[in-house]
Amino acid sequence: MGEEHPEPAPETLSAGERVLLIDGRRRRRLITLTPGDVQHLHTGTLPHDQIIGQVEGSTVRTSLGAALVVLRPTLSEYVLKMRRGAQVIYPKDLGPILMLADIRPGDRVFESGVGSGALTMALLRAVGPTGHVLGYERREDFAARARHNVEEYFAGAALPPPAQGAARALPLTIEIRDSYEGIDVVNLDKVVLDLPEPWQLVKHAQDALRPGGIFLSYLPTIGQVARLCDELEGSRFAMVETLEVLHRTWHVKAPSVRPDHRMVAHTGFLTHARLLAPSD
Ligand SMILES: C[S@@+](CC[C@H](N)C(=O)[O-])C[C@H]1O[C@@H](n2cnc3c(N)ncnc32)[C@H](O)[C@@H]1O
């Protein structure tokens, strides 16, 4: 690059940021960088001031000489480390949900229940500043936990304001509501559900979605899926499909190259469908 366009210097880690400390056995600890604080680890102590000002990806050493890599957490890492109220949807399913529901910038998405906010964060990143996520959560304590997690994750992170100079506000509304009683908005692009009886929401979703809109439900058991599919059958939803995502990691270290011995065998089933226009 010429002098007029100098390469931007890598942004260094600053006070208040959350970072992961990763040891030689890939164990991760999520910390908030606080001037003057000292991290006490079984491999020694580490003053936060030693990390502040470093470039992401640097290696720092504890008082006993143990090496730790410092990285900002990815969304997947944050979801696995954040405090939870309700059980979260794991990254292995979050990615496919975004694709199957075709969540894109500008989408208006309804989500229920909000739980710990893991899916909410993935949805917010995908709809961007021009979209909106409306979440109904029955439990006040879970909604508060989700709001906290979401705000903490996006604090300082990218979701630029829609217009230059406008105040940054997350395009998110969480209401304490029982979604089985109905959805109070119309013309939604997507309805994404993670609650025990989604069949109770099929009629509501049909009224709330625009034609062509997408319905997606995450369910842990196949009995629930069968009940949901029965309800979708008698509705205006079509192209119903159910799948599960198997995620198997591999041990790749010569001469032993093979699948890992352990895997998460089951999390949940994803059922998705498209809403057709009303017929005459
Ligand atoms: C498994 S959790 C959702 C976790 C969330 N998807 C995440 O990734 O963090 C299910 C949530 O649905 C909520 N819920 C169950 N039935 C509901 C209903 N009828 N209306 C609104 N929320 C409901 C529960 O309170 C719970 O917080």
Describe the structure.
There is one protein chain. The chain has a 7-stranded mixed beta sheet, with helices on both faces. The protein has a 4-stranded antiparallel beta sheet with strand order 2-1-6-5, with no helix packed on it. Strands 3-4 form a two-stranded antiparallel sheet. The protein folds into 2 domains: 18-71, Vcp-like ATPase, Chain A, domain 2 (Roll), CATH 3.10.330.20; 77-275, Rossmann fold (3-Layer(aba) Sandwich), CATH 3.40.50.150. Strand 13 and strand 14 (256-259) form a beta hairpin. It is of the alpha/beta class and 280 residues long. The chain contains 6 helices and 15 strands. The mean pLDDT is 93. Helix content is 22%, strand content 29%. The protein binds S-adenosylmethionine (SAM). S-adenosylmethionine (SAM) is lined by residues 86-89, 112-113, 115-119, 136-139, 142, 178-180, 194-195.
Compact summary:
The chain has 2 domains: 54 residues, Vcp-like ATPase, Chain A, domain 2; 199 residues, Vaccinia Virus protein VP39 (Rossmann fold).
